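hey so u asked for the seq, here:
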Amino acid sequence: MSSKASSTCSLQNIKSGQIMTISAASACGSTGTIVVKDDSKTYATFNKTSTSEKYQYLGNASEVYTGGKNLRVEVNVAHSGLQIAIKAIVNNNNLVDSKGNTIGTVYVIAIEEWTDDDYNDYVITITATKS
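ran it, structure tokens below
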């Protein structure tokens, strides 16, 4: 028996032309895919193919956001033998320079795919700054 679940997190504070630095990691027994995309372009895809619960760095990417509609992170998780429900914590903060000007934003998305509420199952960070 295999269970599947997904979660989508909107990235509304990233502006067209900003450079996105994206990284992903995982510490859970499921396999999954993380995709950063808008309605017209995929910016990054990270795959977790092992069911090892050991911490895994899934990769990083740098892309310029071209301004397509509906910029988002999609997390799709598959786990054999159990029912899963994805819960997500999304935190974003402005990056502010020494003069108090907002120059970008940082998103941290923490995914829980089981019941232990450790929120380290999938962790995605996205930093967007002026190019």
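Strands lie at 2-10, 19-26, 31-37, 42-48, 56-64, 72-80, 87-96, 102-112, 122-129. The chain has a mean pLDDT of 93.
lmk if thats what u needed
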